[in-house]
Amino acid sequence: MTRPSFKRILLKLSGEVLMGSGQFGIDPETVDRVAGEIAAAKDAGFELCVVVGGGNIFRGLAGAAQGFDRTSADYMGMLATVMNALAVQNALEKMGCDTRVQSAIPMASVCEPYIRRKAVRHMEKGRIVIFAAGTGNPFFTTDTTAALRAAEMNCDAIFKGTSVDGVYDADPKKVASATRYDEISFDRVLTDNLKVMDASAIALCRDNHIPIVVFNIRETGNLATVLAGQGVATIVQNQES
């Protein structure tokens, strides 16, 4: 399937991707591999910004289920995303990529605060911007952060790197007969409650006409393939009326 080509993209990575084959934390070898794919995309001429989740270290919703106050748990999850962002930045800079981390929770000793105009300027200068600490607010996921930042950065699309090669009508890890979509509408995703991103992120992308390309980031070289409009992935977008 040939998909539309995009210039400025937001790459959404789940924190779990950075675990590699482990069960927790950050695997340096995996971070280096992912960073290499991001660097290759930058060298290919794409303008990139990145949002990384924190589930490999701490997930707010899971923490709340275990007895933490939900607001405190979400803030802990936001701090986990900062750790992941710094790990990705370190790997990218070792490869010679000019990179900036911007945090929605100000921490001047570690990274820049999130300032939209400054982030846009970084991208215009060819820097890779990594957005950390979610939206800075509890009760919002990093999926919503990705949709919000993509809209603010005027991105052409969100590329969501996951452990599956697209959107299915059921969990392919549990249902052998699950069917993968090449293309699906935002409204269908919401109506069928498909677990692409949370509902607020899907609605934000729908209303701002930002397509979401879901692909398997665990497959080496797949980011470049999907960016080229090839390979296996699902595109979620508004259907033409």
Q: How would you portray this structure in words?
A:
With 241 residues, the chain is an alpha/beta fold. It has a single domain, classed as 3-Layer(aba) Sandwich (Carbamate kinase), CATH 3.40.1160. It is built from 8 helices and 11 strands. Strands 4-3-5-2-1-6-10-11-9 form a 9-stranded mixed beta sheet, sandwiched between helices. It has a two-stranded antiparallel sheet with strand order 7-8. It is globular, with a radius of gyration of 17 Å.
Entry keywords:
AceGlu_kinase-like_sf, Carbamate kinase, transferase, globular, single chain, alpha/beta
Summarize the structure in short.
Homohexamer. With about 240 residues, the chain is an alpha/beta fold.
Chart the SSEs and their pairings.
Layout: E1 8-13, H1 28-43, E2 47-52, H2 60-65, H3 70-94, E3 99-103, E4 112-113, H4 116-124, E5 128-132, H5 142-152, E6 157-162, E7 167-168, E8 180-181, E9 183-185, H6 186-191, H7 199-207, E10 212-216, H8 222-227, E11 234-237
Parallel strand pairs: 1-2, 1-6, 2-5, 3-4, 3-5, 6-10, 9-11
Antiparallel strand pairs: 7-8, 10-11
Helix pairs in contact: 1-3, 5-7
Enzyme class: transferase
Domain Aspartate/glutamate/uridylate kinase: 7-216
Keywords: ATP-binding, Cytoplasm, Kinase, Nucleotide-binding, Pyrimidine biosynthesis, Transferase
